[in-house]
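Quick note —
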Amino acid sequence: MKTAWVFPGQGSQTVGMGVDLQESSIGKTKFEQAQQTLGWSVMEKCQGDEAELSRTLYTQPCLYVIESILVDLLREQGQSPDLVAGHSLGEYSALYAAQVFDFTTGLALVQRRAQLMDTAAGGKMAALMKFDREELEEAIAVNPDVVLANDNSEQQVVISGTPDAVDTIMSQVKAKRAVPLKVSGAFHSPLMVTAAQQFESLLAGYEFADAQIPVLSNVDPTPTQSGTVLKDRLIKQMTGSVRWREIMLQLSKEGISQGVEVGPGKVLTGLIKRTCPDMKLANVSGMGDL
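Predicted structure written out below.
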């Protein structure tokens, strides 16, 4: 049986996540290492105020730390996937799982990404559920200020762009639900280009090892183990689309019969369930699931 580990991104965070991981020596060590890198406590944020935890600045490092600890605990049990993928921020956890970089390198990158994204103001994002895809694609094609940021599934997408452009699309395209997202900027859109350029110059200073297992990237869902390719894809990720729907279809093409969501929540297994109904699914979000 071929297994894929998938890692959730921003939006899956919940107050109290990861608290039981302190019971393990792996968790204890990683939380201490994280505090040295970040200058603040992941556990304090996870047990604190929901609004603060939902701020990009804190959400992203907290998710990466918790997902990395879960990876180590799964490995300690002798488990290993045949393929990995992560949704947006989750791609960093996937790269850690594939041993492209070590824990602290990944955390330093995630912290800087979170800082840059947290300060990117002036954009808007909205989720659309149950809509006409052709109608949406046509509306986006003629509006240069909005893009398809997250193609999550056949029935669920996120658009990103200037507030006016996003509002225009929401008024033009009939959807069962259209929900503006509580984020600071227009993530995964060309409006992130300044942040992406700053991040690229930081990434230049890091060496990416070849992956031990194939990775499906957000901007290109074809599997690769090349560290150079994975780094290049990561650079494009800030302004590029999260092609999650295609990643799920690729899992089936690669003969994956079991998907394990490593991290809080059940967003990704929910999406996979509808797209790949025959796949066996499991969630690992804490000590109880191990």
